[in-house]
Design goal:
The complex is a heterodimer. Chain A contains twelve helices and no strands. Chain A is mostly helical. In chain A, helix 9 runs antiparallel to helix 12. By secondary structure, chain B is mostly helical. Helices cover 83% and strands 0% of the residues of chain B. Chain B is built from twelve helices and no strands. The chains are: A mainly alpha, B mainly alpha. At the A-B interface, helix 1, helix 3, helix 4, helix 5 and helix 7 of A face helix 1, helix 2, helix 3, helix 4 and helix 5 of B.
Amino acid sequence: MSNRTFVMACLTPLFIFSLAFLALPLIRLFLASGEGDAGWTIYFDIVRKPRYLNTLVLTVLVSLATTFAALAVSTTAGMFLVRNRFKGRGSLLAVLTLPLAFPGVVIGFLIILLGGRQGLVNQLTPGHVVFAYSALGLFLGYLYFSIPRVLLTVMAAAEKLDPALEEAARTMGATPYRVVMDVIIPGLMPSLIASGAIAFATAMGAFGTAFTLATNIDVIPMVIYTEFTLSANIAMASALSIVLGIITWILLLIARSLSGSTVAGGG
Amino acid sequence: MFKTKTKMLQLFVTLGACTFLLVPTILSVMAGLTVNYFKGISSGLTLKWVYQVWELYADSIFLSMWLAIACLFCTLIIGLPAAYGLARHPGWLSRLLEEFISLPLAVPGLALALALLQLYGSLKGFRASWTFILAGHVLYTLPFMVRSILAVLASMDLKTLEEGAASLGASPWQRFRDIVVPNAMPGILAGALTVVTLSIGEFNLTWMLHTPYLKTLPVGLADSYASMRLEIASAYTLVFFILIVPLLMAMQWASARAQRITQ
């Protein structure tokens, strides 16, 4: 067998598998989105019908809030962990990265333990404080799985940041605030945009967390799920899936062009 | 003075984040081990709930382990030769193929599941068997395997090594077996641990693909959150943690090791 044939033979299983289980199903999904009563105008319905538009706006808002909160928390913690060596640093890092492989459902349950009816906050406070099933609960759940993702990307970039630059800024009389604004943030910018895009995309597509928490509010993945299973509105479920998929795919493409890797995975 | 103040603030945020991530996890472990969570830890500690979880959900735990092993097998069979092929032929076509198989990293699992369901949902035999869930898991984990191996292979001078072996008369298959596979080992290990960890925890695709007779561990978790008392749900989560945390740590160790080699 010649070299070239061998290499081609190596690629064949991948080619067959991705054709059968990725390319063809995605084509089917796209075609299905146009098979409803509305035809291809179904894509306009997403922005025309208040039910879908409101959900889309809410999903984007919660995801944006998650992104900025995760960026703020993880950049601060990441810079701290990169610049300081102390006892217990490894444990802190382990705690901050372990949730990376927790499925979204588990994270939803953890938020219920914090803010549900039998939750910690409700037990500790005198009033009746239940926030797990509101937009706040969803935000906290998304934040929970975003912190580790953003942290890893930011820390990788922060390790390459030259501490001499900050020293130089300080000796020239810059306040800590100016050092952060003029030296650290510009230096980290590509990784901040990349990890922000990852956090936003993951939050937009998070199904497991929404599945446990979003009983009263609607986010896009939950609408896709209910349209498909309860209303049997397969065309709309497909159209929303396509739109959601394109949004998250473009965001992760941006993320990958700015920083080498993407720490993705479902929420 | 300012320096210490900033440091204090940074430490405060770091510890705050750790607390936020750790406290609910501890709550969940505690709830799974107390007699009555509502009364608190004073009601006593028990393994009763863990036993009940075992009775109720042992099947789903075993199914998940079986799926993870099968998924590892499939991703190795498909991913290892593919990574080699992509490494030997770097070009726009390989880039495109790699980009395409990486789609499941970006597109939400729910969307992929809908796509699979609509294409194969009418094939009842396939739809109702565990291989349907397996297809979803392989689809989701394959890019991790391919990229993990590809990163290691791309960092070494594969061409020179292979030409050396070829000049001594090694066939393509011998070169693959004796040069490529041993050299790619760190990438294979990291990829394998990632695949197993992700497969055991996969929910977004599996929830759509599963049937009432085929519940995986995370599907069972969702089921217990919705219908069981808090203690059982927590005990089940505890079982999941015991399974996933060592895997996750091994995965992080192996990935860091593979990354050191590629640099």
